Amino acid sequence: MAGGMDGQEAMGAPPSADAIEAHARATIARLPAQFRGHLGDVVLVVEEEADAETLDALGIDHPLDLTGLYHGRPVGEKSAFDSGALPDRIHLYRQAMLAEWCETGVRLDDLVAHVTIHEIGHHFGLSDDDMHALEAAVAD
Q1: Average pLDDT of 43-53?
Q2: How confident is the model at residue 81, as a pLDDT?
Q3: Which domains does the chain possess?
Q4: CA 60 to CA 52: how far, in whole Å?
Q5: Which residues contact 19 (CB under 8 A, 6 or more apart)?
Q6: Is 95 helix (H, G, I), strand (E, B) or coil?
Q7: Which one of 40, 99, 117, 123 is least enclosed by Cβ atoms within 10 Å?
Q8: SS3 127
Q9: CB distance 42 to 73 below 8 Å
Q10: C-beta separation of 140 from 118 below 8 A
């Protein structure tokens, strides 16, 4: 893992947004080339938590209930006529991930990989089964 992380950070300060991003980028780097090649314009953003507007739009009551979100149009729905749109974005929410990490005991790198791949799956319009297969393909 990047920065000497083994996926289960030592006790002390909680992992930073930079650590979460490093795990997510390491996951992306392990994706098959046919997927990585279509992610160049997708922006990866790590935020503390989803804002109230995002939560309201999704009907979610508490920010710790949302670990990630894809904003954009899936690759198969894009058109040559799309212009002026914001770039596609994958948002990872640090506080929600840390809460789930503490609650479940799942390795942090595995949790970040799961959420990152799930959001990438939305970018490609993948089914849940396809997302699980992609996750298995990048597993350590």
Answers
A1: 95
A2: 60
A3: 17-73+86-139 (3.30.2010.20)
A4: 9
A5: 3, 5, 9
A6: helix
A7: 40
A8: coil
A9: no
A10: no
- Given a contact cutoff of 8 angstroms between Cβ atoms, the answer to whether 99 and 115 are in contact is no
For the segment 79-94, the average pLDDT, to the nearest whole number, is 78
pTM greater than 0.85: no
Residues 6+ apart with CB under 8 A from 28: 36, 39, 44, 116, 120
Confidence class of residue 2 from pLDDT cuts 50, 70 and 90? very low
Neighbouring-strand partners of residue 71: 89
Name the burial class of residue 19, with classes exposed (0-12), middle (13-18) and buried (19+) by CB atoms within 10 angstroms of its CB. buried
Based on the number of CB atoms within 10 Å of its own CB, is 60 exposed (0-12), middle (13-18) or buried (19 or more)? middle
Q: Is 5 left (phi over 0), alpha (psi -120 to 50) or beta?
A: beta
Rounded Cα–Cα distance for residues 90 and 103 (Å): 23
